Amino acid sequence: MSSQEITVRSQELGERLRGFRAGAKLTISDAGKRIDLSTSQLSRIETGRRRPNIETVTALLAVYGVTGARRKTAMALAREACEDGWWHRDRPDFPERQHTLISLESRADRIVNYEGMLIPGLLQTGEYTRALMADSKLVPESEVEQRMVTRLRRHAVLRRRDAPTFTAVIDELALRRVIGGVDVQRRQLQHLLEMAQWPNIRVRVVPNAGAHAGANGSFSLLRQPDGPTVVFLENLTCSLFVEDRSEITTYEKAFRSLLTQALAETQSGEVIASLATAMDAEADSTWSPPI
After folding, report:
1. Contact at 8 Å (CB) between 255 and 112?
2. Domains of the chain
3. Radius of gyration of the CA atoms of the chain, in A
4. Is the pTM of this model over 0.85?
5. What's the rounded Cα separation, in Å, for the pair 55 and 42?
6. Among 79, 137, 261, 264, which is most buried by a count of CB atoms within 10 Å?
7. Mean model confidence pLDDT for the chain
């Protein structure tokens, strides 16, 4: 299987099989011998570069002692590993839906993200995220802490020594939307300025001046050095991973267009700093952003 044939599903299957093997405390050589696979063959399965047949996956799961829901999920991935695109509609659990995104972000060498309503997830402070979940009334209180843990797992990718480059294009309206009160929003903007100083992070602001290529919603593009480029889309109940080359080209074109309309990094920083300063000066919940 060439890198062009690697799919999100085959990578997800490989990662799960690797985790199962680690849980069974088997080396890749020992596991391969159990089912008559070479170390290189099993290694390629675990990296998504080789699509195993159903019999091989069944045998590996038996060796690793995997049963129940985990086995069912792995078998479904094995049956669908060659398919492009993945609609996570059958995963109501938020951390489970985020698992694939976290895996993709960990393998990416470049991530670009457009956000029109909110601060990008990878750049959110904990209190901003918590306020967003609480104020939206869509996240049960019992799930907030679990989602916070999931978000922290996502943030870790930007702090690695080999972290991907991350370009965030943010609509100015997202900066002016006060989440959690003025103090929370001000600290979020200050955090955004701090993150923009990191060598692998670029923050660009699209000024509030008419329509643009992001008018139809937020999206992320994740480029993998050893796998397909993937577009990630998300709504309230499901996630979508787009792998079709023609669709990805459309999103790449949209992002290039957004970059032409966005302010330069220095100007973007000035806009963010100006809003943060204005909030700091007012420091009460009756504050409203300047027109």
Report:
1. yes
2. 3-80 (1.10.260.40), 86-282 (3.30.870)
3. 21
4. no
5. 14
6. 261
7. 88
